[in-house]
Amino acid sequence: MGNREDLLAGAKRCLIEKGYSRTTARDIATASGVSLAGIGYHFGSKETLMNEALFEAMREWGDEMAGTLSAAVKADATPLERFEAAWDRVVESFATIRPLWATQFELLGQIDHVPDVREQLVRAMAEAREGLAELFQGVEATGDPERRRLVGTFYQAMLAGFLSQWLLDPESALSGREVVAALRLIVS
Q: Are 155 and 63 spatial neighbours (Cβ–Cβ below 8 Å)?
């Protein structure tokens, strides 16, 4: 790896170990084995590096989830069976990358003071909506764009809501089976 990649890897480690606001440039330099000057040279600022590291880590999560789900869900699964299996994997992932999820909530609290991050989050949310629509419902990128937007936004809202509950009280997090039961109650 080169210095740029080492800095990204070091920043991701720092995000997990210390969170966004508690990570210093010196922490990243130490974790990556790259000089402090390398941060400015490759990224312009610590914040730009941290933002890129966060978004890269979340894209990696999405890719990992897609791979995990395609292996875990039977080809002939009903939409509810697919949802249940997918939701169980998502909840399991909360624990694995808890610090990255907490960091996103940390950034949301500062969003009015960091316009660059807001713009990046808006773009990332649009990308995430498309990924979630495909992940949970198999809505292809070439399919109906309005269906993709609606389905993706619904799953994004569910994910954020369940995640916030899980961050506060993981013991009360609903399993895939319980979410399906709740959905049945709501639509009946």
A: no
